[in-house]
């Protein structure tokens, strides 16, 4: 059986969508604690549990954490896909047994449960935990620090989501991105950075099979307030994962699959081993550009412009009634010649109305965009949802 066939039939279907909080994952944790060690390593600023699973008993110690930013849940789903894969007894048993023998994987699937429940990037005190690595002002940051000091990992996985705005010059989106963070202002290639780079090169080789040309890397400007930079400074190889966007996958159900393959690569279950690749290939991975929009209308006639323009629409993610709603708004108006849209429509010089208004305002929430001269022609409608 190929790993993609296993995933299609057996991924962890009990967790899905964008809104993932502690109540979502505890039933799964309670199932998996029968075979793996489950502990509560501390509590959030509002007293929520911060659970940790230990998988395997090997000498190679890897520590991973997800939802440091509460509204970034794709990697949490992928973690549970990985756990289900390791827990099953029907397929890939030699690879799984080797993993369990070689590795001890400590994973905190939800470092920021308060932010997860409120679907916010920050924690309950409005602090970005990924900028709190030096001050350690928050309970969640202190817990992560204590875990690192206790387990002494040889590799850390800092698991995040990225927005849908990233892509490349050739028009492909950055569906998954990685970074080996800098360890100083000079971005020196320290031993820890090189280890992380080799893992990213191996991951990239694996992912090219599934999403060719859609893997990127982040700029490695140094920021000691960030967790990854801090750990690299301390000589702990750290990989930043960023689960991005592809096509109309706004629930990030395809991207979670690619993160699952990336996790398998880290643990030598698929693809080349990091020890067999050169870190120099890391710099061949294209750097992310902010050149994507959710939707672009091309060749639009607007009274305030003397020539046709393009109109970009983006979505805000809004938590309402335990559901993430995608609220469209006007993001930018102009030539947008260096931008790509996941959907692009050429309106061929039509004059448009938004919400029955003729003047478009950047930042304005919208429901409908139609042809001003023919109301039966609808170029965009919020309720024609491809997001669910």
From TrEMBL:
GO terms for cellular component: extracellular space. This is Peptidase M14. GO terms for molecular function: metallocarboxypeptidase activity; zinc ion binding. Belongs to the peptidase M14 family. Its cofactor is Zn(2+). Keywords: Hydrolase, Metalloprotease, Protease, Zinc. It holds the Pfam family Peptidase_M14. Residues 6-270 form the Peptidase M14 domain. The keyword Lipoprotein does not apply. It comes from Aequorivita vitellina. PANTHER family: PROTEASE FAMILY M14 CARBOXYPEPTIDASE A,B (PTHR11705), SLL0236 PROTEIN (PTHR11705:SF143). GO terms for biological process: proteolysis.
């Amino acid at each position: 059986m190929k790993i993609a066939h296993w995933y299609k039939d057996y991924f962890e279907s009990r967790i899905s969508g964008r809104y993932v909080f502690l109540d979502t994952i505890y039933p799964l944790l309670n199932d998996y604690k029968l075979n793996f060690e489950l502990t509560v390593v501390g509590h959030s600023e509002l007293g929520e549990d911060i659970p940790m699973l230990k998988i395997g008993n090997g000498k190679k110690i890897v520590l991973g954490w997800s939802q440091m930013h509460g509204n970034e849940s794709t990697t949490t789903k992928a973690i549970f896909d990985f756990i289900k894969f390791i827990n099953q007894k029907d397929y890939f048993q030699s690879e799984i047994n080797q993993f369990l023998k070689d590795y001890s994987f400590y994973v905190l699937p939800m470092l920021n449960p308060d932010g997860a429940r409120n679907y916010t990037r920050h924690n309950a005190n409005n602090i970005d935990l990924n900028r709190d690595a030096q001050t350690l002002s928050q309970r969640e940051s202190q817990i992560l620090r204590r875990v690192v000091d206790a387990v002494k990992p040889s590799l850390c996985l800092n698991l995040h989501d990225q927005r849908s705005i990233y892509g490349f010059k050739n028009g492909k989106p950055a569906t998954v991105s990685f970074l080996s963070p800098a360890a100083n202002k000079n971005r020196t290639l320290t031993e820890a950075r090189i280890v992380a780079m080799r893992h990213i090169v191996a991951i990239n080789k694996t992912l090219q099979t599934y999403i060719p040309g859609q893997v990127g890397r982040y700029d490695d400007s140094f920021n000691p307030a960030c967790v990854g930079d801090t750990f690299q400074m301390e000589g702990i190889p750290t990989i930043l994962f960023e689960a991005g966007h592809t096509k109309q996958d706004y629930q990030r159900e395809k991207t979670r699959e690619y993160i699952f393959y990336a996790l398998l690569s880290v643990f030598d279950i698929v693809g080349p081993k990091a020890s067999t690749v050169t870190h120099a290939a890391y710099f061949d991975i294209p750097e992310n550009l902010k050149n994507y929009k959710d939707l672009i209308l091309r060749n639009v006639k607007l009274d305030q412009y003397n020539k046709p323009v393009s109109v970009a629409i983006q979505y805000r993610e809004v938590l309402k009634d335990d559901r993430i709603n995608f609220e469209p708004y006007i993001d930018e108006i102009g030539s947008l010649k260096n931008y790509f849209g996941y959907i692009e429509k050429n309106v061929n010089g039509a004059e448009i109305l938004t919400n029955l208004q003729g003047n478009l305002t950047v930042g304005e929430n919208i429901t409908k965009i139609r042809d001003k001269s023919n109301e039966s022609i609808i170029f965009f409608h919020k309720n024609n949802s491809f997001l669910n």
